[in-house]
Amino acid sequence: MSFEDFVAGYGRSLVRLAFALSGDRQVAEDLAQTVLADVYRHWKRVRAAANPEAYVRRMLVNAHLSWRRRRWTTERPADLRPETGVPVADPAEAVAARDQMRMLLSRLAPRARTVLVLRYYADLDDAAIAAAMGVSESSVRATASRALASLRGPATIDAQRETR
Amino acid sequence: MSQSIERELAELFAADAAAAPDEQVVAAAAVRRVHRRRRALATTAAAATAVIVGAGVYGVSRPDATPPQAQPPVTSSSAPAWAAPAVAPPAGAEPGDPLTSGAAQCVKEYSAETLAEQAFAFDGTVTAIGPAQTSRDEQPPLDLRSVTFQVHTWFKGGSGATVAVDMSAPGGGDVTSENAPAYRIGTRMLVSGMPRWGGEPLADPIAWGCGFTRYYSPTLAADWATATK
User: Do B186 and B137 have their domain in common?
Assistant: First the structure.
């Protein structure tokens, strides 16, 4: 398999995963480009891996977490909304709820958000998430459980949504 | 409740991911970035080599320049360590080549994985060569020299601006070792090795041959940085 074949087969999912992980357009583009540059430079090593896609996904997750450790950036809920100038078709309530969720997500530790992205966007099971992050499966489950609990936390948010 | 939040998360992340640009565009930019970096490094190395080769051993035309020393040098340079001029690898050797040829009695084969197992590794330029420092009256004695380096980059095992490690003598090695390396004051190398008698990385450090010590090249230095991360 050539680097070009890899990009054709897995490039889209990896670039989109970078966007889901980072939640920031500029950071996401830089992250995706940096990881693909590393893949290109070390293609022989990547190609020799038992599962190149999983290998590169781990590179992406490691780079993302490393960047977040070095420069803590506050996620801004509106960063990834389409900038088309056309009014969004979503109902106002749905948009408000999504922004609220972004706000709650921005308070999570980077590793917690990463677990949620890998589980609910990439559809990975706990074993695959553990492999991508270099942690145990029990750690994945515990992190996900705490993250979901903190997202469910403020009862007033749900109450307000119920009464609108 | 839980299902609702999980569904919200899935939709939110999918919306974020949908904002991603075309993967071919990102990959093309990544490849261009790598090629730009390689061209920049090659241009820098070529310019430096041209200066060194064109100007002679010590690369200077100053009236008070120290005259070139006889080969192989086994005395310290009279110039300050930080002013040691760089010299090209010896004839027949290319940047990135190992200092040894025809390995014999090698403990392990050079690779990124085995390099990562070394106790110390650095990019440095030779500033002095003197008597070996790690010998303990072993029999038969090894023909070693203590080589002092001005360190440009520590990959692992140390942090000082200079370091002295024992290496096979530049002009000849004992019959049980691989062929003698060829280096002199000003030779820039990528050096890796182990503490000769165990302990801390720089306790009686000895540089390994068998490919674990090589003439400097920017590309190889980048590979060493990655391997020892």
Answer: yes
